[in-house]
Structure formats: structure tokens, C-alpha cells
Amino acid sequence: MISPMPKLTRKDFQTDQEVRWCPGCGDYAILASIQKVMPELGIPREKIVFISGIGCSSRFPYYMNTYGFHTIHGRAPAIATGLKATRPDLHVWVVTGDGDALSIGGNHLIHVLRRNVDVKILLFNNRIYGLTKGQSSPTSETGKRAKSTPYGSIDQPFNPVQLALGAGASFVARSIDVDGPHLQGVLHRMAKHRGAALLEIYQNCNVFNDGAFASLTNKGTKAINQLRLEHGKPLIFDEGRKGIRLAGLQPEVVDLGEGGASEAELLVWDEKAAPALSFLLAGMGGGFPTPVGIFRAEERGIHHELELEQQATVQKKQGQGDLAKLLRAGDTWVVE
Amino acid sequence: MESQPSRSLPTTQTQTQKESREVDTVTIRFCGDSGDGMQLSGSEFTRASAIAGNDLQTFPDFPAEIRAPAGTLAGVSGFQIQFSRHPVFTPGDMPDVLVAMNPAALKANLGDLRKGGTLIVNQSAFIDANLKKAGYASNPLEDGSLEGYQVHPIEISKLTDAALHGSGLSTKEIARSKNMFALGVMLWLYQRPLDPILQNLRRKFAKKEKILAANEKVLLAGHAFGETAELFERSFEVKAATIEKGLYRNVSGNQALAMGLIAATQLSGLKGFFGSYPITPASDILHELAKHKEFGFTTFQAEDEIAAVASAIGASFGGSLGITSSSGPGIALKQEAINLAVMTELPLLVIDVQRGGPSTGLPTKTEQADLLQVLFGRNGESPVPVVAACTPSDCFEAALEAARIAIRYMTPVFLLSDGALANGQEPWRIPDVKNLRPIEVRMRTDPQGFLPYQRDDSTLARAWVAPGTPGLEHRIGGIEKDASTGAVSYDPQNHERMVRLRAEKVARIAQEYPRLMVEGSPEGELLVVGWGSTYGSIRAAVDELRKKGRQISHLHLRNLNPLPRDLGEVLGRFRKVVVPELNLGQLSQILRSTYLVDAKGINKVQGKPFQVGELVARFEEELS
């Protein structure tokens, strides 16, 4: 009989390493949420691997008492792909940042998503380079003044959710560092998703880009600026006072209640909707609230499963590989 | 022979009415447009020669463009074979016979043909338009410029057309069959067996009956032409070579390498993972491995060179044998990731099939100019073992050796091949699988007293722990590690200790090497030191001089890092040391700096292997 797994707690996932993020960094809150969620997943600790690239966020594996691999800049998705392809039994998480995932590692990110490798990617987006002390990043807003862009960034930023949707990701979500309950809810969902999952976490860098997401987290402004995506529910925000309606291909903000629009007119959120709709919402800019939650969750063929299926099909047809037979394949002749 | 249905094999007894003369060794080059199928003619001739029992080596030479404009010099593709009744170490210097399918092929290759050599040309292609494209002012078949060669013009295109008249094939398909005519003529001229060629055609075109029938017909027409046309006075015969008993096949370096990698996984019991990105001349390794999913070997065509190596590192971290392959430009891209494997001390095989550089260089040509790149092309003090294969079939053994080192010493290992080995072919005595030594793998599973960077006393290797092992959860990474706990450490003393430990670990690999074997006298006047694919040319040149009684010896290095412990002593026993290399002097630089010997380079960077003749001449100079 298999003995039941001992119940793990948050403490089981903490390491003896001193956490070395700046005091007040949003990473602490994310770490706390993940350490809370991990024991709730019911997965043995040794079966969990955290893989990271380079950057502040990528220190993460050192603080998780699981298997961990702090790799090189941008390459964590590729390393995770090789690991998952050969070890389907492992639960592989990738921790990355906006520079790591979207600049130097952009190619690996889109390919791990298109291949639907069964890894869970946590993208800590603080819209700045922190570890190298304050240069603009691929998610910094146009005009951003940073050390490398003293006159303002001239580049248009990436929208990570839109990028992931464009790459064909089967699970795309967004959450916020300090919103523990929401973040933990999304973490549970992505852990259960079969296939590649990308979660963009808005994370405050209080040293180099403080307050980047303040309008979404401050008590006074949060309600009007944040839109919760909930599957099967109409898009309502500002404590029930406003909603999102589609006018053709344009979303619009409508007032609800007396004299305003009715709930029936609002867009009802569907995680399995055509990716174009998710793309539309993810791109809502000025005058619109910022959506958080699950933009897309639709399962499809998984990389390692498809590969193993092919191997099994070939083995069924040809039998297990036989080295002697392989070496003797083709024309041979005997010298006597 | 009893009568058989028309689709069965014709007899291989190519009884000829004409006289046949015995010769020892022949070098033939087939050349034509890259779309003319010369690689196929060449490899089929090779198949027949191998089965006839000759020792042989081949070397294909093709342009970087898949189909350069037809008829131009840029589009000329060639295939050279040397076959003999004696041991053969190279694909031959100057061809004795040149088969040229068009004026451009003639122009590009005539300079290499031995004086007085045989020239077989497709006369049909020597029309004004083609002559102009090749830059001929007048037709060389008519203007006397080929005097001094034995010229045999054959209307290959016209005879092919005639043979396939009414076959229902398109003009294009008919034109494509002319390589079979040329092959048929050559098979007759050298009395090669037809059976293996016909069998292979049947395999290849099993589902294309019309094409198969056409190829067979044209091949036999070419063969019959040789016999009946009054062009050739006689055919030639090259008797079987006396070679070691056993079961043989032909193998190219890339094929042998792929089989070596599969063998390494079978002998170690590890799952194989091959992450690769297409690049000439390494791609065939990926193609070969991708065919063999029955071994549970995972091939992964990555999005780029970096992902290819990174995914292999991920696989090794997971307890599999991670392998990646590329050529020079791709290796440059992989180096940062290779350093991650150096730092985290994970086994990894990195195959570099070298080609002409720098930058894109000469993608389809051979060179040995990546030695310094693989030794020193990474940041920091970064020791990586290097193993170099020396013949196409040796790629099998070299792959096994590289895998053994990687696993036993927990380190990335470079395996060097090159364009000449990758595409060159030779007969290979197929090893008995039972005699292949198993590769020992020791995965740590015991949590008692575990420290991630604790080392084995003899090899200094750290333990390999696969994730999934309960109680051994730990973190590794590219930041400097504490010498025992593996925790992040910025301590200056610890860093120096770790740098020295990594160097010492790699240096200890030399304790596994057998003693160096010098070909020829163990001491004396001149030692030739080589590595990699130059083995054959050096060996043949040294043999030739030794037969003349010259004091010359040959040492070929397989392990380029760490160098063998007895190398300094061997070098010291000779008055002079020369190092032929297809680069500007990379090994010679290492030998000079390591052993303070006056190692002199013999260097060539033309995208081509050394010719035996040129080495003989250079060695003579050193001896005089």
C-alpha cells in the first residue's frame, strides 16, 4: 500500500538561503504566494523544479526548497524544454522577468509557447532592468526616462499577454504581486493546466521604477483601473458601476445601473474564446481598465506527449531499438 | 544464367569480351552541375567498390548553393573516390579519371586531373550556350587544349534520351537520369558489380515504378555502351584488398557519429536527448538520429543554436545524456551555455563539425580552424575536454569516448569532426556490440551526508543527482559555488579554489588515456604531429617516405584537452617536430606554448584536405 504523502506546509518550501532582494521589493510578495500555493498542490517536493534565467526575479530558485536551476540570461525556457522532454514526471516552473523573457530570451519564450511545452512560466514584469540598476526594458512605456534612456525611451513596449497569445499559448494570465488571493488563485489554475502556461505578474520595483502599477493597487484608484476577468461572468468593474461592451471590434466602457447599459449587453468572459478577443482585451489602453485574470485557457497537444507518442508508434512498428541491427543496416559484406 | 522475368536482377557477372587490365589503385572524380546527381553516381560507385572488396575513401565536394545557375562554375559539384587493393588512407590526390558532365565541370576540375589521365565527358553538353557559361572561348573538345589526356567524349545526354524514348517520362526526368548512364559506363570500365546498385535503386524508388525502370534502363545502357562502343580498348580491374576479417559496411563520418551517440545511450542506459539547429555540414547527424525513434532517443530541432545547447543541458540536468551539434558559427553561439555546464558540472556532448571560417566562411568545405575556439572561446577559466575523430568511421569510437568522459567526469566535452570526415566515406568493420564496453553511470540517490559539490577522490567529479530523487533537493546555477555546499559564494578564496578544482578535474582525464603510439621509429629525426581528419593524408605521406627509408614518424592526437601526459616526453625524442593542420597553426601554437618545443606548422586553408603529394614534398624539405 502506498502511504499517503505527508502534508507539506509553506515552511517545507523555504530554504536556508538569506533572501537578497531589496527591502520592499514586490518579489517578496510573489515568493510568499508561491510558497503558500506549492504545498496545496499535493505534489512531492522532489518532483518540482524551478528554472530561472538572469535578473532579480531569477534568484527565485535559491529560495525554494525544491530542485532548482539558476541558468543564463534568457535561456530558461529552452533549458526547461529539454528537461520536460526527457522527464515528463517533473513539474517544471520557469521564473523570468521582462528583460530575461522578452528581450534576450524572446525567441525561446515564443517557441516554448508555440510548442506547448508543459512548463509554467512566471514572468515578473516590473518594466525596468533592476539587477543592472535601472535601464529601460522591453515593457517600459514609450518616453520612459531611465539610465539608458535619459531623454525618454523611443521604443514601443511589448504587451506580454498579447505576445503570448500571438505565439499560440494555451494558457495566458495576468496578476499582481501584492494581490495575494488573486495571484494564488491564478497559480492554482496554471498548475493544473496541461501545457505551456504564461502568467504575467505586475511586480513593483521600488528602487528603479516605484509605483509602476500603483494605479492598479492603490485603494482609491484600484476599482476604476482594474478589471477582473472571470470565466462565464460579464466584464464589470468599478464596484459594479461600469462594464465593458463590444461595439463591433471595439470594446467600450459603459455605465451600468439606472439610465445606463444593462448587464445583458456586456461582454461575458470566456477563457476559451477565440484568441483575438483576448488579444483585444489585453490591448485596452488609456480610458480602459487593465484586465487581470485568465485571458486564455484552452488545452491542446502537449510537446512531450506528442514526442513520446511518435516514439511509441515507431517502437510498435519496428520493435525496440536494436543496436546490432542498426550498425548492420544497409549494404554489408563479409571479408574472410 | 536461367531466364528471369524482366524486373529481376540482371547478372553481376559482367563478362566482358574486351581485355581487362589489373591496376592497384585508382582515383576517380565525378563532376557536373549540382543538379546532375553526381553525388549519387559517386556514392553508388563507392557502394559497388566496397562490395568488390576494395579499401577506399571518398570525398564529396559540393557548392554551398543548392542549385546554383545550371552550367556555371559556381554550380559544379564533385565526388571523388580512391579505391585500391592496398590500404587507403585518403580520397586520393589527383584523379586518374575525371567524369565531367558539362563544360563548367570540366573547367573547374581539369587542373586536378593527373597528366595523361582519363577524361570522360558528356559531349552532348558541350554546346555554345554551356561553353559560354563556363567561360570557354572555343570548344575544348575540338581546339586541341585537351591534348595530353585520354579523352573519351560520349553523347551521354543523347544516349540517355534514346534509351528512354517512349518511356512517358518528362524531358526533365529524362535529363536527370543521365547520371545513371555515366555510372553504368564507369561500373563497366572498372568491372564493378551491378547487383548492389540495382538493389539500391529498387529500394530507393520502390514507389516510383516509372523512375525505377528508367534508372535501371539507363544504367544498363551505359554499362552496355562501355562494353560495345569502340571507345575503350579495355576495362580495368582492381582486386580486393587484404583487410581485416569481419562484417563491413560503408559509413560516412556523420552516420558513424550518429550511431556512436545511439550506442553511447545504449551502453550507458541513459536516455538520449539531441538538441540541434540545422547547419552545414552537421545537419545529417540530426537527420540520422531523427530516423531512429525506436531507441527512445529524443531529437529536438530547436529554435536556434542557443536553445539547442540549452535544451541539451536541461536534459542532462534531468539525468539524461544531453547532446548538441553544430559547426563553427553555431558553436560560437553556444559557448555561454557550455560555460553553464562547466560551472554546474553537468555532462554534455558538444559536436563541432568544422567548416571553413570565419563567419559564414566556406560552409561546405573543410577546415580545422575551430580548435582554439573550443579550447579558449569562453569567458573565464573554462576547461573543456576535447576529443577529435580522425577518420569517418572513427567518429563512432570518438563519440563513445566523448560520452564516457562527459559522464565519468561530469563535464561538457567537445567532439571535433569536420566537413571532410562528415561527408567522406570509408568501409567500416562493424564492431560486435557485445565487445563494446558499457559506460558506467553513478546517479546519487542517498540523501545521507549529501553535498552538491562534494567530489569523487579519483575523478574530482561531483555527484549526478536527477530531480525527482527524494531528500536531495538542491539548487545549482551559473554563479560561483561554495566548494562543498554548492550555495552561492562570492568568497575570493573559494573562487580561486573552485577555478583550480575545475581545471584539475579536467586535467585528471588524462589518467585514463592509453600510452601514445608513435607510427614509425619512437625517436629520431622528424616527428609529424597531427589531429583530426588530416590523419589519412599524413599517414599516407609518412608511409611513403618511410618506404624510401626516411627517418620520419607520425603521432596522431585524439585528445586535445587535456593533452596526454606522455606527450612532452615523446616530442622531446625527436630533433624536429612538424604539425600539418588545415588552419594557420593552432595545435602547433599549443604545443609550442605547452612544451617549449620548436613545433613548426605546415598549414593550408583552402577548404580542402591535404594532398599526400604536397605533404611528402613538405616533409622532404624538413628532412633535407
Tell me what the structure shows.
The complex is a heterodimer of chains A (336) and B (624). Chain A has helices at 26-40, 76-86, 98-104, 106-114, 160-166, 180-192, 214-217, 219-225, 275-282, 303-318, 323-327; strands at 48-52, 67-70, 91-97, 119-125, 171-176, 197-202, 226-229, 236-237, 242-247, 250-255, 290-297, 332-335. By secondary structure, chain A is α/β, with parallel strands linked by helices. The mean pLDDT of chain A is 96. Chain B is α/β, with parallel strands linked by helices. Chain B is 35% helix and 20% strand. In chain B, the strands form five sheets. Chain B has a seven-stranded mixed β-sheet with strand order 11-10-12-13-15-14-20, sandwiched between helices. The radius of gyration of chain B is 27 Å and the shape is globular. Mean pLDDT of chain B is 94; it is low at 1-14. The interface between A and B is large, with 58 and 73 residues. Strand 2 of chain A pairs parallel with strand 17 (475-477) of chain B, so a sheet runs across the interface.
Secondary structure layout plus pairing:
The complex is a heterodimer of chains A (336) and B (624).
Chain A: H1 26-40, E1 48-52, E2 67-70, H2 76-86, E3 91-97, H3 98-104, H4 106-114, E4 119-125, H5 160-166, E5 171-176, H6 180-192, E6 197-202, H7 214-217, H8 219-225, E7 226-229, E8 236-237, E9 242-247, E10 250-255, H9 275-282, E11 290-297, H10 303-318, H11 323-327, E12 332-335
Parallel strand pairs in A: 1-2, 1-3, 3-4, 4-6, 5-6, 7-11
Antiparallel strand pairs in A: 5-11, 8-9, 9-10
Helix pairs in contact in A: 1-6, 3-4, 5-9
Chain B: E1 19-22, E2 25-33, H1 38-51, E3 55-61, E4 76-84, E5 97-100, H2 103-109, E6 118-122, H3 128-134, E7 150-154, H4 156-163, H5 171-176, H6 178-189, H7 195-204, H8 209-228, E8 234-237, E9 246-252, H9 253-268, E10 272-276, H10 283-290, E11 298-301, H11 305-317, E12 321-326, H12 328-344, E13 348-354, H13 371-376, E14 386-388, H14 394-409, E15 412-418, H15 419-423, E16 425-429, E17 475-477, H16 492-507, E18 524-531, H17 535-547, E19 552-557, E20 559-561, H18 567-572, E21 574-581, H19 587-595, E22 600-603, H20 612-623
Parallel strand pairs in B: 1-8, 2-5, 5-6, 6-7, 10-11, 10-12, 12-13, 13-15, 14-15, 18-19, 18-21, 21-22
Antiparallel strand pairs in B: 2-4, 3-4, 9-16, 14-20
